[in-house]
Amino acid sequence: MQTENPYSIAGKTALITGGSRGIGQAIAELFARQGAEVVICSRKQAGVDEVAAAIRAAGGKAHAFAAHVGKLDEIQSLLRQMEERGLAVDILVNNAGISPAAGLDLCDTTPELWDKVMDVNLRGPFFLTAAIAKQMMARGCGGSIVNISTTSALMAQPEIGTYCISKAALNTMTRVFARELGPSGIRVNAISCGVIKTAMGDHTMNDPQRYADMMKVNPLKRVGLPEEVAAAALFLASDAASYSSGQIFQVDGGVLS
Ligand SMILES: NC(=O)c1ccc[n+]([C@@H]2O[C@H](COP(=O)([O-])OP(=O)(O)OC[C@H]3O[C@@H](n4cnc5c(N)ncnc54)[C@H](OP(=O)(O)O)[C@@H]3O)[C@@H](O)[C@H]2O)c1
After folding, report:
1. In angstroms, what is the span from residue 190 Cα to ligand 1's centroid?
2. What is the pTM of this model?
3. Is residue 18 part of a domain?
4. pLDDT in tens, 84-122
5. Ligand 1 atom showing the smallest separation from residue 42 Cα
6. pLDDT in tens, 196-214
7. Edge-to-edge strands of the sheet including 37-42?
8. 3-state SS class at 189
9. 184 found inside a domain
């Protein structure tokens, strides 16, 4: 552990999925400001290009790739392109996620919706984690993996049931990987977000009844900002959290208190 500044990630390489906007963008920008070389991906090349260009313009190091994390061939292609550029990941943030506002009762979930949500929120993070962890183990350098989860994994939410289930499985995936990878010096944690002001968070914020219900159980009486999740991700990614693994860290305004 670095004692001078345990929060430093300078010189590390961080892969952040879903870095074109919202929480992923905030994490990429903070990590780059803290001296990490960041690699961001999302489905649309233009979105990640824009964020990476802004990071480089501010003096940071950033690479941008188009990759759909729910498609294993695109994950493989991402890993190949990173290898070609000599990018070896020290920090992986599985941030990309979807929460289709289906307004459906669970019993009406179609196999197509189920697959779509599970592919992006669980299958992609699982196989990306496995691939990156193998690389970390081969390099013998340890590493940190941070999964972006949600309070909805613990508090059942009607209408987005498939999302809740996928993130509850992501939490369990976090704990199992933490146990298996810990002996190799790889820490695995998750951040369990409450409602955060992003395109995804708008679903709750724009529905007055849903927003009022949420505020009743929120001690801080406000939604969170992407930068507040990024700060927690920096802690978990850095040596400051060197003795923390397998944890589901709440960034929710105290909702689960
Ligand atoms: N905002 C909240 O209130 C909240 C609460 C709890 C948890 N979370 C979690 O936080 C994470 C980020 O959410 P956010 O609010 O920042 O969402 P967002 O604003 O909708 O951004 C999602 C990001 O993921 C990318 N993405 C979506 N599908 C993808 C795919 N299949 N492959 C690769 N990239 C993909 C998007 O870019 P493209 O469109 O270009 O692919 C975008 O960069 C998610 O895992 C979400 O579940 C959010």
Report:
1. 15
2. 0.98
3. yes
4. 999 999 999 999 999 987 678 899 999 999 999 999 999
5. 34
6. 999 998 877 888 888 898 8
7. 61-66, 37-42, 13-17, 91-94, 143-150, 186-193, 248-251
8. strand
9. yes
